[in-house]
Design brief:
Blueprint (H helix, E strand, L loop, with lengths): L2 H23 L2 E6 L1 H4 L9 H11 L5 E4 L7 H15 L3 E5 L2 H5 L4 H17 L3 E5 L9 H17 L2 E3 L25 H12 L5
Parallel strand pairs: 1-2, 1-3, 3-4, 4-5
Length: 206
């Protein structure tokens, strides 16, 4: 009779180990962006992170996309919540697609650089590979616009991360690919955004 409780403990321990192993085997890709990645104004299943999930399945790549993008998010907001997101999802890859809202608000570039660096560093400390996604703002912002865009490349170089030069490459100059607000891409634009992301992401999945 005394053996039964012992056996039950062994069984419970075994089940917990299996559950832990299954969780560890889950390979998450964390998308950490703003409305451009949250699918603002379109169906969620049409947004590029959802399309990414389908592409991974089609290519038999064992990754799950976790999209934690929030419309209106800034780099400071992302910096405040990155650690909790990393703790919860333990991603293999983190796609950092923040900064557009900072640029439109004229955030001082040292703050932008510090926030992006902190987000990337947090992910790297947990052994996640990072893809930093560059952003641009309209040229009427003057010299700030060029310096803003250059900041993403500077952070990527300093932290030795992969870089996508511009999320809206091939989209930004096509008015028909934007919703009525002239800020957010349409569903038709999402495959182009995915292709931009994929060029930087694919090497990280090998």
């Amino acid at each position: 009779m005394p053996a039964f409780p012992y056996c039950r403990r062994l069984l419970l321990a075994g089940l917990m180990l299996l559950a832990s192993s299954a969780a560890a085997a889950t390979r998450n890709i964390l998308v950490f962006g703003d409305s451009l990645s949250a699918g603002y104004g379109i169906r969620q299943d049409a947004a590029w992170p959802a399309l990414l999930g389908r592409r991974l399945q089609e290519r038999n790549l064992d990754y799950k996309v976790v999209n934690l993008s929030i419309s209106g998010e800034t780099t400071s907001g992302g910096r405040a919540r990155i650690d909790a997101a990393l703790d919860r999802h333990s991603p293999r890859v983190v796609i950092v697609a923040l900064g557009a809202n900072d640029g439109l608000r004229g955030l001082p570039l040292p703050q932008l650089r510090d926030n992006l660096t902190a987000i990337v560093a947090s992910a790297q400390k947990r052994n996640a590979r990072v893809l930093l996604v560059g952003q641009r703002i309209p040229p009427n912002y003057g010299a700030y616009a060029d310096q803003f865009h250059a900041t993403f490349g500077e952070v990527a170089k300093a932290r030795k991360t992969a870089l996508v030069d511009f999320l809206l490459d091939g989209v930004a100059t096509q008015a028909q690919l934007f919703q009525a607000d002239n800020l957010h891409p349409t569903a038709e634009a999402q495959p182009l955004l995915l292709d931009n992301i994929w060029r930087g992401l694919a090497p990280l999945l090998k």
